[in-house]
Design brief:
Blueprint (H helix, E strand, L loop, with lengths): L2 H13 L3 H13 L4 H21 L5 H19 L11 E6 L3 H16 L3 E6 L4 H11 L3 E5 L6 H14 L6 E5 L9 H4 L4 E3 L2 H10 L36
Parallel strand pairs: 1-2, 1-3, 3-4, 4-5
Helix pairs in contact: 1-2, 1-3, 1-4, 2-4, 3-4, 3-5, 4-5, 5-9, 6-7
Length: 247
């Protein structure tokens, strides 16, 4: 069975809410020699993206999206135990995410795949105040802070977090990586909030971080007249221009 055929069958089980069949399909594939990491990259992650796309387009109901997302996350949880991990590399990552089931799942897969490459990863989830994030990264001194799955309403807070990190000077060599969510739909937004790196998905994030192991500080100069190109229509909340950074 090809990955395309496997993916089609997997989606059918997700849409039908068939938990046992979805799990059996995935673990049968794993028994046939498909590594857990590949199943996360080529099956679970694309299924997550397809569910998000169909739900945003009103092509599946909320019930279907909820059932399918939870089955998909259960499969991801179980694959996590089967991942073959490289020896610890000494590199460290802290991961934050937007508020939602898909955001949690996507961030979890990012964590799993980087851990498989030998990284030490701390997954903080959603809703952690910026000052607590600042304290935590100062304590564990990660190489990368990953912000995954931000929605339009979360962009101002992500911007404030990056500003706070750079103003305070905590972990000056730490790179800020943004993945997925609104950063995939609004071209140039990663640059606008002064993230160091951006990637469309977890697999590309691995490549991007490997290709850019050292932070290159961005010059803090204004760019008058620059407009962000949007791949799709995305409405972002307006921010007040202030001289201080709020939590």
């Amino acid at each position: 069975m090809t990955m395309a055929e496997l993916f089609t069958q997997y989606l059918e089980h997700l849409f039908g809410g068939r938990r046992a069949e979805a799990r059996e399909l995935v673990f049968a594939a794993q028994d046939r020699g498909i590594p857990a990491c590949k199943l996360l990259k080529k099956l679970v992650w694309p299924a997550m993206e397809e569910l998000e796309k169909l739900y945003r387009a009103d092509q599946i109901s909320r019930i279907t999206e909820h059932m399918a997302t939870r089955i998909n996350r259960t499969v991801a949880d179980q694959l996590q135990a089967l991942i073959r991990r490289e020896p610890k590399s000494g590199r460290r990552m802290v991961v934050l995410c937007g508020d939602g089931e898909s955001e949690e799942l996507g961030a979890q897969i990012v964590c799993d795949l980087f851990e498989a490459e030998g990284w030490s990863v701390w997954f903080l989830g959603a809703g952690v105040p910026n000052d607590e994030v600042l304290q935590f990264v100062g304590k564990v001194t990660p190489d990368v802070l990953c912000i995954y799955g931000t929605q339009p309403a979360g962009v101002p807070n992500a911007r404030r977090l990056v500003e706070l990190i750079r103003e305070v000077g905590v972990c000056s060599e730490m790179q800020v990586l943004v993945v997925g969510g609104v950063f995939n739909r609004a071209e140039g937004l990663a640059d606008e909030i002064k993230a160091d790196l951006d990637a469309a998905n977890a697999e590309k994030a691995l490549v991007t971080v490997a290709q850019h192991p050292v932070r290159v500080p961005r010059p803090d100069v204004p760019q008058p007249g620059r407009r962000r190109k949007r791949k799709n229509k995305v409405t972002l909340p307006k921010m007040r221009q202030t001289s201080t950074v709020s939590k």
